[in-house]
Amino acid sequence: MNGWASANDKDNQKGLYLARAGLCIVCHTDYENNGKPLAGGRPMETPFGTLYSTNITPDRETGIGKWTDKDFLRAMRKGVRPDGAHLFPAFPYTAYTNMSDRDILALKAYLFSLNPVRWKNKPVEMNAPFRWRFLLGSWKWMNLKGGPFQADSSQSAQWNRGAYLAQAVSHCAECHTQRDAFGGLKKDMLLGGTAEGPEGELAPNITPDNETGVGNWSIDDIAELLKSGRKPDSDDVQGLMQEIIEHGYKDMSKQDREAIATHLRTVKPIRNKVEAED
To answer: Model-level pTM greater than 0.90?
Structure first.
């Protein structure tokens, strides 16, 4: 198979769908520098320094070609590489841990169906102590709660599908939640937006607060934004969210976009107006 835009058989179509919905294609492709699909190299600016996404093609020397199913599951669930080193949480394993084994392995099968790309990973550009991976064990103790996702029997199948996608696969909270001084999500501000989102961009409040969030948006409004980037006032999203929609969310099914919207309409409303600092 050539590239990431198609799957070579039905077994890999699910993995491709998850690679889009889970934003693997967005984060692990350096579009600005015409990087090869999923070969990594995209810079990720954080308050602690710059990291670069890694090569997740099946190249055996520079990618993940030697990873077993067990290796891949451990990386997605526990944030640990095959050599035992901790992965930096710019890779959102705190959300991916909630994915099902079946979905994680479907994603791996798709990635391993790609043409391998030989592209060496770039080292992180962070000062001590933030680049010291061994310290992440303590960070995980505070911030990583193991999965997988547990359905809420009091909610509908649509709601549970939306919760699974929003909380695990598409990891909405990772971008739309304020973080503490150590980079952990502030649970009391979940999805309430932040002026210090990924790549230094504003991440709006997507809770159903009527004044500062999306409380006045319908399910159709939210689903349409995930497809086209168009807001109810006819404005369009820009920046990173535009990329996320173009290379990820727009290819999700209408049912899944509506499921995410259904879930978001029921989360705790948070009064938080997100504005750029002067």
So the answer is: yes
